[in-house]
Amino acid sequence: MGWYIGLGTIPLAVLGLVFQGPIEGPARDLWLNATVLIVFGLVLLLAEQVGRQRATLGDLTMRDGLVIGGLQALALVPGASRSGSTVTGGLFLGFTREAAARYSFPLTLLSLGVITAQ
Q: How far apart are CA 2 and CA 50, in angstroms?
C-alpha cells in the first residue's frame, strides 16, 4: 500500500506545478469556493448511493491509486476537500467506506510535503 500512496501523490505534484498561477489567483473567488463545496458535497452523496462498496484495500490496483491520486488533485481548487475528493473517488471505484478512508487519509498526509513545497 505504501507504493500506491506514493503513486497517488504524483498527479497532485504535477497538476499543482502546472496550475499554480490560476490556483493562487482567480480561483480564490468566494463564490467559486462556495459552489465547489456544494457541488463536491452532492458528488459525495452520489458516490455513496451508486458505489458498489465491496472492494477492500487488498483489491487496490495501480490504476486505482492513480485515479484516486488524480482526484486528490481536485482539491487544488479552493473549496474542494482533499480527503473528501479521495474518499469519493474510492467509493466510485467500488471500495467500501472503510477502505476508501484508510487509503485516503495517509494519501492526504503524504501530500502535505507537496503542498508545503509550493
A: 28
113 contacts: CB under 8 Å, gap ≥ 6 = 9
Q: Residues 81, 95: contact at Cβ < 8 Å?
A: no
Secondary structure E strands in the chain: none
Best CA proximity match to 52, nearest among 86, 7, 99: 99
Contact 102, 57 (CB under 8 A): yes
Grid cell of 43 as nine digits: 458528488
- For residues 7 and 38, the model is more confident at 38
- Residue 103 burial (CB < 10 Å; 0-12/13-18/19+)? buried
- C-alpha span between 71 and 16 (Å, rounded): 12
Mean pLDDT of the chain: 86
Whether the CB-CB separation of 105 and 83 falls below 8 Å is answered with yes
Please list the residues that pair with 55 across neighbouring strands.
Answer: 95
